[in-house]
Specification:
Layout (H helix, E strand, L loop, with lengths): L7 H12 L24 H15 L7 E6 L1 H12 L3 E7 L5 H8 L2 H10 L1 E4 L2 E4 L1 H6 L4 H6 L5 E6 L8 H9 L4 E6 L9 H19 L5
Parallel strand pairs: 1-2, 2-5, 5-6
Antiparallel strand pairs: 3-4
Helix pairs in contact: 1-9, 2-3
Amino acid sequence: MESNKESEKLISLSRSLSKRGLLALRFDFFCAGESSGQFEQITYSAEVEDLRAAFDLLQRYPVGKMGIIGSSMGGSVALLFASQEKRVASLVTLAAPAHPEKITDRLLSPEEIRCWQQTGFITYHGRRINNSFLDDLQKINIPRAAEQISCPALFIHGDADATVPVEDAYELYARVSSPKRICILEGADHRFSNPKDVGRVLSESLDWMIQHLCDRPT
């Protein structure tokens, strides 16, 4: 939503993967970081298409199995994409919302949402978001997408997450029928801001990817 590929968490994770012999690609969605595009046009569906472009780019190289790691909104985007793309061999989500529409309802009053719909936009953290974001939320169904995932999936979440309730992780985990694991970090917030929590996230994610992407130990 408001992050980019320069996140310390993602940089550390990509370096750890690289050291173990796995090619790691970090990229900015179209409205973030070094990518073009306007933040006001952000939607889940548009980010799924961005992820597909990144996935297809790696297909030009002699790669083997491919996995995806996504955090927060990016985690839900990764899950939506994995439900459509059966070539995804492994999935990790960090603090991913199962019901982003409920987050909107918690952050805004009914009057603010009505105003958003009527005027066509809202200002969030000083940045404009068009009502196409609301329209897109009506089109996606993340729990249903979880039921269509066929790759191994790891769900990591903090039980002190004040942005996305930990219950979302339990729901997504319950919906997946492929090999799966859930990792709940006691006291961890949405951004895993405690260094110990970050270390645990990186370790769990790395182990999961190595387990399901490598044909032999690295």
